[in-house]
Specification:
Layout lengths: L2 H22 L5 H23 L4 E4 L13 E9 L1 H5 L7 E8 L2 E9 L4 E4 L14 E5 L5 H9 L3 E5 L2 H10 L4 E4 L5 H13 L3 E3 L18 E4 L4 H8 L3
Parallel strand pairs: 1-2, 6-7, 6-8
Antiparallel strand pairs: 2-3, 3-4, 4-5, 8-10, 9-10
Helix pairs in contact: 1-2, 4-7, 5-6
Protein name: 3'(2'),5-bisphosphonucleoside 3'(2')-phosphohydrolase
InterPro entries: CysQ/Inositol_MonoPase, Inositol_monoP_metal-BS, Inositol_monophosphatase-like
GO biological process, one term: 3'-phosphoadenosine 5'-phosphosulfate metabolic process
Length: 244
């Protein structure tokens, strides 16, 4: 099984597990659903990677950070449940599972599962549809849209699309539901590694908000800002974000 196939399989299977957790705990408190989802998906992914890629290191949001990964040639970067709030709210579908592989300095494979949508987007090839919107659609958090994203919306005379998890937001650009995702204010490597791998495979533009490259498997796993957009919009978006 190739790394691409493994990433897609594990993201999908973790997503199926999470759908089961959601159904099992439908009558429980939202906090209990969140905790169970995070824990069970993490345990599944760690066991599966240990079985299929025993020599590789793993960086997971829900696990202790083993700094041995810094000298490893291959590191899986996973978010077992991206969008715990949306997962805990029954009926919402804007949450995800992220599985990415970093190898010798860059992302080489990745998958984003959107379990409640029945969709998994995965490398090596992803088809991003042509935009169908005259005004660029900027996807933002439904609760805390960053000022820089609002500035991009204004500069591009665009519209806002509200959505939950980071993975779902990037996926929306890949799927043609939105055109621009700009984030500032705090994220970690597991929030963007798999979505960025998928976005790049779809031919989308990705960078930090100052235009510098996104770098993974660092000692400090904070990666606080991000742009994912259609390539024809990159210059216009960067003109705004670099000025903020």
């Amino acid at each position: 099984m190739s790394d691409h196939e493994l990433a897609a399989r594990l993201a999908t299977e973790a997503g199926d597990l999470l759908l089961g957790v959601r159904a099992e705990l439908a009558g429980a408190d939202a906090a209990d659903r969140k905790a169970a989802g995070d824990k069970r998906s993490h345990e599944f992914l760690m066991a599966a990677l240990a079985q299929h890629r025993p020599g590789d290191a793993v960086l997971s949001e829900e696990g202790a950070d083993d700094k041995a990964r810094l000298t490893a040639q291959r590191v899986w970067i996973v978010d077992p449940l991206d969008g715990t709030r949306e997962f805990s709210e029954l009926g919402r579908d804007d949450w995800a599972v992220h599985v990415a592989l970093w190898e010798r300095g860059d992302l080489v494979a990745g998958a984003v599962a959107l379990p409640a949508q029945g969709v998994t987007l995965a490398t090596p090839t992803v088809a991003a549809p042509a935009t169908t919107s005259a005004a660029p659609r900027v996807v933002v958090s439904r609760t805390r849209p960053p000022a820089v994203a609002l500035a991009v919306r204004d500069a591009l005379d665009g519209t806002l699309v509200e959505m939950g998890s980071a993975g779902a937001k990037v996926a929306s650009v890949v799927q043609g539901i939105s055109d621009v995702y700009v984030h500032a204010g705090g994220q970690y490597e597991w929030d963007s590694a798999a979505p960025v791998a998928v976005a790049r495979a779809a031919g989308l533009f990705t960078s930090r908000i100052d235009g510098s490259p996104l770098v993974y498997n660092q000692s400090d796993v904070s990666l606080p800002d991000l742009i994912v957009c259609r390539p024809e919009l990159a210059d216009a978006v960067l003109a705004v974000t670099r000025a903020q």
